[in-house]
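INTERNAL TRANSFER SHEET
From: sequence group
To: structure group
Subject: Short transient receptor potential channel 4-associated protein-like

Please process the attached sequence and return the structure record in the designated field. Keep the field labels unchanged so the import script can parse them.
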Amino acid sequence: MFGGRKTTPTFSRHQRRRRAGTLGFPEGACARLKYLPEGHQNVVRQVELAKCTGRGLTRAIQLSAAFVEAVNNQQKLKDLPQIVRKLSQFTIGPWMDYHTILRLLKELRELLTAHGFEDNPGVRWSNTTRAFNTEVFDVFDGSQVVIELLMKPMLYPSEDKSAREQEKVQRMQNLCLEILHHVFANVGIIAQERGEPLDLVHYLFSLMAQQRTFLNAATVLEDMLQVKKDMIRLENIPNFPELVNKFNQQQLANFCRVVSVAMSELSESEDQLTLLYQDEAAKRLSTIPIPDCNQEILVALPDFIQRLVDLACRKLDEEQVSLPSMMNELESWMTWMDSSLAFDALFEILENQDLAYEFLDDPFGPIQVPMAMKAMREIMYKVEVLYVLCILITGKQRNKVGLVTMVTKEIALKIQFLRLSHSFCDHHGNKYLMMSESELNELGRIRVQAELPVVPEVSDIDRFWLCRAVESFLRGVTCFVDQIWLLRRGLLEHVLSVIIDPDCDNKEILQSSFDLLGELMKFNYNSFKRFSRFMDNEDKFQRFLKQVSSHLVDSNMFIRSVVLSQEHFVTKQTEYSEFATTQCRLLIHVGEPKNRTKFLCSLINIIQVSTLTQENVSCLNTALVILMFARRCGSLPLYLQSLREEEMRGYHPGFLLNNFRSLLRFWESHYLRNDKECCALEKSSGISLDYWRETTLTMRGTDRSNVESIIHYIDEPYVEE
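Return from structure group:
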């Protein structure tokens, strides 16, 4: 709103760790080898030497059988190293003994569960049993051996394999994928190390072309892409368009979960969320960002968007979606299922009795799929699809992505759809496409009564849409008709009730409520009249003001809206000037110089250049709006003097003013090179960009004799350049 806070959904990647620079051994393996039995400590020296020279002991399978047995016995590893060694013999050459391989892989899968070493009293390599099992497995080259087994069919392809042999190959690959998922999910650094060479990533994509290996390959891909150091380029994946085109609807939904990681630039740390970091990164960037390239590739795929729309619009069975009964029915399953991929894995087992007998140690006859589980899977499909649509519609390809119409009852799905609607409505001329014919007719009647011209975007509507993200619907150039339409539905009173509720202290709720309130009231006399009627006693009004002042980052957009409105009524809609200056308590309160000064000091005090983000940069723009109006009426020196006095009261000369100068320097570098941001500021405030620029340049000028420059109010010893 107002070119400040951006509420476009952002998405965070799993915490990454630094990639190891070792050869075959994982970085952590060298440290853990120090726990080896006495008499074998020279192995550590051999490993360290191999790291430097590239020769000698570079893989754990090169360790002697006697050494491996000694470690196994002392650390009580239940023959895990020996199992890995036995499997490694099948990684060389075309020969395969599938019966033995499947048996060994199943033994590994069992050992790698949380209970594999639960009776081991000597655990000392890791704080948790699960991670301990995984690290032991990786130390002894288990991850690499399983990867080599997984990819072996690619190295030794055979066109004339029988159906039975193909089934054995896929069973082996699925077991390998299950083991890799366990390893990657429990120790992220292993996933990062194994994912750097792209041959494994590309091979996993190829396995998604097979019905039997799709789910496990997608799961492992998601594990790897979430922690991968560099974002993958979809253009480099062999036969990518053909692969996606072959997906059925179920596979396409799960593919959305995987590919979403490659569609948006995801921050790694708090530092990288700051606007300063992002601006510096943008200056260094000489090519088109990878997420933008990947989004372009996806949008260009034949019928890709339409297929997503079809998935999102697929209706749910009303009998399946009663939330209380659904939760009761699913309660016993939920600890296992943490993703839509897990849902589909279970469905594959439950709906295929032969597979169930293969998967379960003690088969128990025909299994019925719970009705509620079918509904839940369908809901999760829609969530994944809407997530991808939301990313696409906020990216560079947004104009190529059509709108979506759908109805649902489930909360998670509603959240994703509202994000999608919000992204579409944000400064978008087609936002009226989301309204029904009767709603559009009502807008027309309001326009006629107000004697306003016809808006082309409204007059050309011939479709209706059932959902709307209200605050983004109002965002941009203020539309009186839109505001009145929403006011008639009691939205203002509802939002005010939320804000003054004594139990309301949720930051997200308060921020969205204040943002929406600001858009509903900006430049609208009727809104302020309704506000005054609602605040019919002093207690309500003071509770409201307390929420405003104690949650300034969340409420500053609303403050800006009231400041803009107060000036608008006094200078432009002068028929409401008396109302703004003598009747409306809110406008009077915000219009008083002492209160504006208090807001100004607080706004500048809570932000610094190093901590500016899309969420709090709006505080800087609100402070500038206050000062631009002060400059317009000749009182800017009084406000700057008040900042100096605030510093002196706190015995910190120069603190606020130097900070403000730094913020203005950043403002110029950030906004004046960004046409979209500048346009949003200009449209939402009604203040020309030239006046924004002129005011900032004046205040951060170097002429100490100029009473409108900040430096005039900083004693020379405290000036920071």
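Handover comment: The longest helix spans residues 163-186. The chain has a mean pLDDT of 77.
Transfer complete.
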